Amino acid sequence: MTTKQRKAKNAYERERRRLHRIHIFEETARAHGFVYVGGIDEVGRGPLAGPVVAACVVARGPLMLRGLNDSKQVRPELRVELAEKIKCACSAWAIGSASVAEIDRLNIYWASVLAMERALAALAVLPEYLITDAVRIKSFAGPQEPLIKGDARSAIVAAASIVAKVHRDELLRELHELEPRYGFADHKGYATPEHLRALKEHGPSPHHRSGWWRVREAQLAFGFTVQEAEAAFGA
């Protein structure tokens, strides 16, 4: 065996062990008799603009997909490929979202829960057991396991995070077509130097979240008084 072959074999074995390790919660659920195990996660809590998006995926068996991981740890080009493989491998999957107006009205936590509830409601096959990323969804009647850092520790939650991330990224690219001044296609609404410069130059758009202090700061910089900015943002 050549050195190159040995390295490839070792890499394969490491990845196989990692995939088995992140399936432990799903396998425990199936050992207790649950067949359809679901994972749910959201993306887009932190950005200054755009909706928060959740995905729920439901599977009958393990998702032994090479590279499956928390969406933040997966390269963008691989995320798209994995999202399609996940959709094909799962029994059901669905997307839910909450708008900027709902984020401003509810706050980001409850808007995230709303997006997850909508994803669950859109499923063709409901999970018998649900694993979440540290959130308990009260509207879900079945057993669930809120798992801290679930998108890094559970394969089914990681799968949901990837599907949600790919979907939200596409939404932000579409938003870029409507509002190219802000560069949404590049930063996806996050507070990058490019985005902050655009906010300073153009002021917030209707797609920006009014509760975020950087957005309010940009509004004030355009000559609004504190009272006017609060009225504009519905504070």
Description:
Helix 3 packs across helix 7 and helix 4 (100-106) crosses helix 5 (108-121). It contains 11 helices and 5 strands, in the order ααββαβααββαααααα. The protein is an alpha/beta fold and 235 residues long. It folds into 2 domains: 3-166, Nucleotidyltransferase, domain 5; 177-233, no CATH class. Helices cover 51% and strands 12% of the residues. It has a 5-stranded mixed sheet. A hairpin with an 8-residue loop joins strand 1 and strand 2.
Topology readout:
Elements: H1 3-21, H2 24-31, E1 37-43, E2 52-59, H3 76-89, E3 92-98, H4 100-106, H5 108-121, E4 129-132, E5 144-146, H6 150-153, H7 155-178, H8 184-187, H9 193-202, H10 213-221, H11 226-233
Parallel strand pairs: 1-4, 4-5
Antiparallel strand pairs: 1-2, 2-3
- CATH 2nd-level architecture of the largest domain: 2-Layer Sandwich
Which structural class matches the secondary elements? alpha/beta
Order of helices and strands: HHEEHEHHEEHHHHHH
Whole-number mean pLDDT: 91
CATH topology-level name of the largest domain: Nucleotidyltransferase, domain 5
How many β-strand runs? 5
Low-confidence stretches: 225-230
Distance between the termini: 67 Å
Major sheet: arrangement of strands: 3-2-1-4-5
Proportion in helices: 40-55%
Strand content: 5-15%
Please tally the helical runs, counting DSSP H or I stretches of 4 or more residues: 11
In angstroms, what is the radius of gyration? 20 Å
Shape: globular
Main beta sheet, described?
5 strands, mixed
Q: For the record, what CATH class of the largest domain applies?
A: Alpha Beta
